[in-house]
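@channel anyone free to eyeball this complex?
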Amino acid sequence: MNKPTFLTTGGAGFIGSNFIRFMLSNYKDSIKVINLDSLTYAGNLENLSEIDHLPNYRFIKADICDEQAVDYIFLNNDIDFCVHFAAESHVDRSIKDPSVFVKTNVLGTVNLLNAAKKHWQTGTGFKSGKKFVQVSTDEVYGSLGAEGYFTEKTPLAPHSPYSASKASADMLVQSYFDTYGFPMNITRCSNNYGPFQFPEKLIPLVINNARAGKPLPVYGDGKNVRDWLYVEDHARAIDLVARKGTPGEVYNVGGHNELQNIEIVKIILDSLGSSHDLITYVEDRLGHDRRYAIDASKIKSELGWEPETSFGVGIKRTIEWYLKNNGWLKNAASGDYLKYYERMYGGTNP
Ligand code: NAD
Ligand code: TYD
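replying in thread with the prediction:
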């Protein structure tokens, strides 16, 4: 029997690389993983240095918007699961330059959908065992007040160019099911944290700045709430949805770990033994969503998924990882990680 083949887009980023490591350590050589990534500023092959020698793992440098490249990958590999992480993912960047978010997150997703549809369809429907998983975000639901949770039925009401581009992509993915019966799921997850997160996002940024004695920029009053999920719990959820999710369904994934930003910053400072004087309130983010919180009861009742890592355990593990991997953090913050591809692959596409 052929080994199930996972095409993972954006596998050199934070969540994608954690997903690939999780899958290869769980399933060993009983699966094949292809990592399709264009290596934007957020793509770092160093994230995969533990596994990049494995014979059942392959990296392909390509842009998800490149029709020919994506078609070629589907033509030459019997892809069973397309797990789609590749995206522009940082809200602040989307406020400065929305266009690239539309290009990658919307047009890139349509390009992948078209290739998967073309290679997976039969005369009467789709080959069995195929699945497209759109890895999305709770930010597509907009912002909550002090009460309540996002469910899968909450109407989409994105506010930032980032979340608007993800919502557009989600609706396109859903439309391929509604129109063609294309086998898909969408996962909508709350904020992830853990190893290998690019230090533009809150938690690694605070760890990095605190270590260097630099100010910690806290937007607005610091009381915006996010629902934090340890990245490995997210990887486990995506694997379950890919294999067992009912085609056409959306699954929310959340950690039930609601914290204000300022609480997170103080937890990290206390854990590092750094002074709270580093906290610097700065101008608020434009259109800053106040609160995100996920109701993850559907994925629990249908697929038996629950977060396993409490915030206390996850944040300790995360801080320890960044301290132990200071070289990674320094390379990521300075841009030196960009040299890794040249060093490892000599600029040629393997
Ligand atoms: P990331 O920014 O760390 O990584 C994105 C990866 O995609 C990078 O490796 C980058 O090189 C690649 N990429 C970008 N544009 C590409 C293109 N045109 N072609 C090929 N590759 C391209 O992002 P992340 O935090 O790992 O997020 C992964 C996915 O999960 C995204 O779709 C994001 O919307 C979603 N998500 C993230 C979070 C979070 O907390 N980080 C929460 C919920 C959902
Ligand atoms: P971020 O990690 O950018 O994730 P997202 O915007 O997708 O939720 O930000 C998490 C929260 O932290 C968000 O409310 C914005 C806030 N934040 C700061 O206060 N200071 C910062 O320097 C950053 C990057 C974020």
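from a first look: Residues 5-345 form a domain with the Rossmann fold fold (CATH 3.40.50.720).
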